[in-house]
Amino acid sequence: MDAPGFDDLSADRKVFAYYLYRAAIAGNDILCAQNHRHALEVRRLAEEIFTHSRDVPDETRDALHEYLKLLWIHHGFYNHYSHTKFVPFSLTRDGFRAAVEIAAAGGASPVVAGETLSRTLSRLERTIFDPELEPDAGPDPDPALAPGLDSDPDRESDPDPDPEPDPAPSLPSPPEPFLVGAPE
Predict the structure, then answer these.
(1) Angle between the 93-105 and 39-51 helix axes, to the nearest 10 degrees?
(2) What whole-number distance in Å separates Cα of residue 63 and Cα of residue 117?
(3) Does residue 101 lie within any of the structural domains?
(4) Residue at 118 is within a domain
(5) Cα three-residue angle 148-79-63, rounded to 5 degrees
(6) What is the per-residue pLDDT for 137?
(7) Which of 64, 51, 126 is nearest to 96 (CA)?
(8) Which residues pair with 84 in a beta bridge?
(9) Does residue 144 form part of some domain?
(10) Which residues pair with 78 in a beta bridge?
(11) Counted domains in the chain
(12) I want to staple 39 with a disulfide (CB 3.0 to 4.6 A). Which of 76, 85, 90, 121 is the partner?
């Protein structure tokens, strides 16, 4: 991969860039896992099948690749703008099942410990292909949003908009600093 200017960086900056790269990889999995309880498994299953898709028919491999790119872009199977679920456009259930069998025969590894690829697909199949199952990601689950600012239009407003503020907790006074060699 060409990275213009990388060779001009100091050794410290190159190490820093490396660790940023590693953090981004970990962050990608974290974001994917936060989008849905099965999103990371679905992505890993699709990646494992695609990695071992040499003998999968071209049409199925292309459809799987199309779906996999959407999983990568959106960090799961919800559009990150509309929060609505997407299902594979061209990849059929039968095509995915066949690709799983071919990939397993070609050396694909299980993505869940103790579970075959076929069993993983069976468990996740409805999540992947049913647009009516959990069709949207729902309101922004961020608890830091102030009341009334989240994206849930059905949220009931606070019955008491101006409640009495909680009194500030009383904190003990900080200890006097201890200085070595200071006069007593």
Answers:
(1) 60
(2) 19
(3) yes
(4) yes
(5) 170
(6) 79
(7) 64
(8) 136
(9) no
(10) 85
(11) 1
(12) 76
Nearest to 53 by CA among 40, 67, 39: 67
**pLDDT, position 2:** 83
Nearest Cα to Cα of residue 88 among 130, 133, 45, 35:
130
Hey, what amino acid is at 79? N
Residue-level pLDDT, tens digit, the chain, 184 residues: 788 999 999 999 999 999 998 999 889 999 999 999 999 999 999 999 999 999 999 999 999 999 999 999 999 999 988 899 999 999 999 999 999 999 999 999 999 999 999 999 999 999 999 999 999 876 655 555 434 444 444 445 445 455 565 555 555 555 555 445 545 5
List, as one string, the DSSP characters of 55-84: TS-HHHHHHHHHHHHHHHHHTSSB-TTT-B
- pLDDT reported for residue 164: 61
- Sign for the pseudo-dihedral over CA of 146, 149, 150, 154: positive
Distance, in Å, from the CA atom of 114 to the CA atom of 53, rounded to the nearest integer, reads 22
Say if 183 falls within a structural domain. no
Q: Which domain holds residue 25?
A: 6-129
Distances (CA, A) of 61 to 51, 91, 101: 10, 9, 13
pLDDT of residue 52: 97
Largest Cα span, the chain = 85
